[in-house]
Amino acid sequence: MQNSGNGNTIQGGFLDRTFHLTEQNTTVRREILAGLTTFFSMAYILFVNPSVLGAAGMNKGAVFTATALSAIIGCLLMAFLANYPIAIAPGLGDNAFFTYSVVLSMGIPWEKAMAGVFVAAVLFTILSFLKVREIVIDAIPKDLKLAMAAGIGLFIAFVGLQEGGLVVASKSSLVAIGSLTVPTTWLTIFGIFVIGILMSRKVPGAIFIGLVASTILGLVTGLIKAPTSFLSMAPSLKPTFGVGIKNLPSLADPQMWAVVLIFLLVAFFDTAGTLVGLAQQAGIMKDNKMPRIGRALMSDSLSMLAGSVMGTTPTAAYVESSAGIAVGGRTGLTALTAGVLFIFSMLFSPLLTVVTDQVTAPALIIVGVLMVSALKDIHWDKFEIALPAFLVVVGMPLTYNISYGIAFGFLTYPIMMTVAGRRKEINYVMWILFFVFILLMYVLNIVPKGTTA
């Protein structure tokens, strides 16, 4: 053994050779603790994802199993392929787009929408293999990447406020505050305060603890019906497995290609931005570049492909991995630990019945807060940047469509930069995306909202 400033490091053995623990100045104990912290910080997705996709008509039990399996695959790939302390699971922004923009707003049945996810995953994997993904990511201005993260966060928070009953529809003002006389609304309010207090105290797993606390309060007060059991085998994947592949003929509809493109773009930027931020936190960045980013992106792509076959929306690197990194996680052993815990979590599917919309709503709202923090790094003092960024951020929640928000920014940015005399700063890829989004806006408006494609 060799003693370092951070504790004993391992000088031999399979784990050290596989994850380079000594090189990263870490220990098995520290990595496992980091994995535990990361898992409990993001375990809420096991219940939130079925809740969000269930609103699209999908079987919640099958989605629960697909969520766990895709997280397991993603974490294991990130551990052994990229050796990063970053966990992967279905992303909240992607499932929100799937349910509220594609299925409910555009009127596309979830079976057809899942075909779009599958095709996007296939293209995603091919582009990652060819390193095109890295080229496009580098071409997108940092300010627009930040605006997309913040806009999706605002959209997710808005969804949470709706599901929690704090915001309701209004004929006169479009939206209004919900009734505080509805008992279940107080579950959401309670959850927000619990998570907020724990987050302020920097308690690991705050979101998961808040979800559990709200569930217990609902059970004690009778607002939530108690489950008949707490443990069981994982629900069958049959209701969702392979549905996307079976519905590939639906891609003959041009509107479906708009869905594919948006899934592709959102997935493009979601993981990339998170990876870079987490790598900076962990001290992994070298010369402003992220080593093995190609492997990390491939890990995300393959888990997205697997998830699309099983029946869940695109996966993404989780910002909650920062909790594990904060306690010392530096290698793939952290991600491996989280993946193993997701395996055990599959025994708790009966708890789906007690995790209601009002219970998961605070998680959506708090994650929205975390994502909106990206606003602070946007160059608001440059109007040619501020306007496109602003349109991205407000466009998503106000049109109730993530794709429109992204389109507003990508259509405005090249024009504003050109008239500001900064045309040479625009990457040619941005001009290609400019024309792609013109076509996209046309396709998205072919079928009126609320109709079936």
From TrEMBL:
InterPro entries: Azg-like, Azg-like_bact_archaea, NCS2. Signal peptide: none annotated. One of its GO terms (molecular function) is purine nucleobase transmembrane transporter activity. It is a multi-pass membrane protein. The keyword Transmembrane applies. One of its GO terms (cellular component) is plasma membrane. It holds the Pfam family Xan_ur_permease. It is found in: Cell membrane. Keywords: Cell membrane, Membrane, Transmembrane, Transmembrane helix, Transport. The chain crosses the membrane at residues 32-49, 61-82, 113-132, 144-162, 174-198, 205-224, 256-279, 331-352, 359-375, 387-416, 428-447. Belongs to the nucleobase:cation symporter-2 (NCS2) (TC 2.A.40) family. Azg-like subfamily. This is Guanine permease. It comes from Secundilactobacillus collinoides.
